[in-house]
Amino acid sequence: MDLLEVAPHNKGKDGKHKYVASCLIAYACGLSFEVGLEENKGILTFLASGNSNDSKEKLENLYREKYKAVKNPYGYMEIYQESSKWLIEEYLLRA
Amino acid sequence: MKNNKNKIDFDEIIGTQAAKELTKKEHFAIIEYRRKVYEQRSSNDKIDDMLTGFRFTLRNYAENEAPKNIILLGQFLDSILKKINIKKGMFATYINISPRNINKYFNGERKFNIDHALKLEKMFNIQAETLLEIQLKNDLYIAKSIHKGEYDNYKLNDLLPSL
Up-side HSE of residue A72: CA atoms within 13 Å toward CB? Predict the structure, then answer.
């Protein structure tokens, strides 16, 4: 997901579009609240995908820090309802 | 170069990671885990989840320049009231609409006014502007569809003094 933000014109403090991945994730959180049913409402599940265990762990830590994601007992990263609401507020509504 | 403590460097090539699909076993395990998380949520949390989805839907609809289907503001409200288990008669009385007329508001026969929108803003935590924008946008869209061409003959030049 964070690879989305590394397009040359988005790099650095003068980048054209800021928080691309964060906004997309926040939008996905909104969709999950909109169409998700019962236990699925407001939750996102994804896998940190790295070529090595080291980069996978780094990505997982990044997702924990940036998106308040947590790792479920089955190895998948999940963003639960309260964090989803925070992301929506932070990246979709505050702009 | 400015040193950034939080900076994490990656040595990855985009698109080289193989996609991984959930096995059925993993899928069911994750659903089961979510159910446990869901059971721990209070009724208020669950209502707030539904309201978050409601607000997201309304904002998207208001921002969408060409929605595929027209959805009336009253239809949105009718739907969320059902989900959160509020009787429409009670809702009508609360915002000072006669319960006998509430269906007319829900089906667009009557329009929500500024006073209603300001009350709804506080109740649902969504801007009155968004609510009225949805109503106005729908009304304009419907009027343009029904009266296609009817306004084409209105030109400012008809009123301007001839030179």
Answer: 22
Residue B119 counted as domain residue: yes
The domain in which residue B63 lies consists of: 51-146
Q: Domain count of chain A? A: 1
The verdict on ipTM greater than 0.90 is no
The boundaries of the domain holding residue A44 are 2-93
Is there a contact between B117 and B132 (Cβ–Cβ < 8 Å)? yes
User: Which chain A residues are Cβ-neighbours of B12 within 8 angstroms?
Assistant: 3, 50-51, 55
B57 touches chain A (CB under 8 A): yes
B98, B54, B35, B39: CA torsion to nearest 10: -50
Q: Render pLDDT for B102-127 as a digit per residue (tens, 0 to 9).
A: 999 999 999 999 999 999 999 999 99
**Domain contains B105:** yes
